[in-house]
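Q: Predict the assembly, please.
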Amino acid sequence: MDQTISVGLGEQVVSKEAGVILVAFGLGSCLGIGMYDAAAHVSGLLHAVLPAQTNGADRSPKYVDTGIESLLQAMLKAGADQRRIVTRVAGGANMLLSSSLNNTFDIGTRNIEAARRTFARMNIKVYAEQVGGNTGRTVRLYVVDGRMTVRVVGGKEQDL
Amino acid sequence: MNEQHTEFDTKLFKALQSIAEEGIHNAVSGFSGLLGQTLQVSQPSVKLVPLANIPYINGGPENEAIGIYLRAEGDISGQIMMIIPYAKALELVDLLLEQPQGTTQELGSLERSALAEVGNQTGTFFLNSLAKMIGGEVRPSPPAVMVDMVGAILDIIVATNGGISDTVLLMEADMTNGDESVETNFWVIPDPATLHRIASMGG
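A: Predicted assembly structure:
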């Protein structure tokens, strides 16, 4: 039986249960980063809020940079091998179109840039991404086969 | 130091509560004036909400809604966000444009500017009250209207506050009319940097 686990703001969940679907609902400027290792049957989803952690020693999943490190750590701990991990990214929208407001808040774009920097630094290849734009997204990661989907308002789930 | 903190918090909550009551009631009169009918408002409250709970306040992060957003700048700065469920927003547009209910089926540019006007009017009325209460100046930005998932809309609030704290301090009230075609959640989120000015407003 399928079980949906919601991955909330600043959270990450790693699972090996075939029936589990990891979901990050309604991502705006936030990023949903999914990782999957088919051979080890491990999937993980991160819901990061802000680009970079500026204080604190722990790697917090709230931030894109430390979140990616933390998700990868959790994947490896669950038996994944970094060389086999398939990484996908969705989110990072700019929700405010109003020209007088959006410069202040282009956190979506900054999140995407932070993710790219972190992937490059950690030698992580991104298999697929759907980032930017002006629409919110719900992201699902099916642990059974590592399929990741994206849904926008009024749309259907589409494979990423 | 702790005692000072407590005293500051008590003063701040008291000040915010009176701003919420007077400001939101004034905002409702602005909204009512625009509609030509009197809206009811729930008791405005001041809340400290954990960041992670923000997307769940309005019925769940994937619900489709309208967000009307504006910023306040001046002696006090912050954000105002109105959240309206999608179906209710269509009804509200019919009321605003004086059309029979059911006329509006989607939100084009005309409909969006009608909703922006709601933000303009309620935001200005709220901020006028606030300016009067603090004896200073506060200006609203032009409003932005978003049609999307609640979670995505509220990411704006989460992202702007998340770097500073794991909680969001907000003033909140629900606005409705008798036949329930209006259902609006009104939030005001003062910038953390501005809280000292609010607390020093005095009783």
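The beta strands of chain B are 40-41, 45-50, 64-74, 78-85, 138-140, 144-149, 167-176, 183-190. The first strand of chain B starts at residue 40 and ends at 41.
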